[in-house]
Amino acid sequence: FPSQTVTGNFAKVIHGLNTNQLTDQVIQRSKRMILDTLGVGLLGTSTEVCHKVAQYSKIYSSDLSSTIWGHLDFRLPPLYAAFVNGVAVHSMDFDDTWHPATHPSGAVLPALIALSEAFPQKKKISGLDLLLAFNVGIEVQGRLLHFSREARNIPKRY
Prior knowledge:
Elements: H1 6-15, H2 24-44, H3 48-57, E1 66-68, E2 71-76, H4 78-91, H5 104-118, H6 127-147, H7 149-152, H8 154-157
Antiparallel strand pairs: 1-2
């Protein structure tokens, strides 16, 4: 349909994805990306910038809370836990990347883990659901990057 927008079409594709569409290869690569991101994030919790954002974020509280990686006794509202853990991943600059420059897993995984921890026990998601959400996040980021004129110019600006 000519009247259908790119955004509407994109949303329809993303909304229609399910765990049956995860191939063995996608599952294995996703697990490797997740493991790598967790490792880099745990290392990043020792950086000065991570300590600063963690200290800043302590002023926020909520009935819902999620873990700050590497600190089982330190919990924050999901939004701030995702922020702190995302900063930890990016602070070492060893997280995965693609061209033009972006770091897909460091933006997606901290948010997914923080949200999944905040779900009530009776609504916990499965590992496959987490892998699907991870891949949808990576796909959305990749398509937005592909559509962005700004992103295409990043290499020329540096």
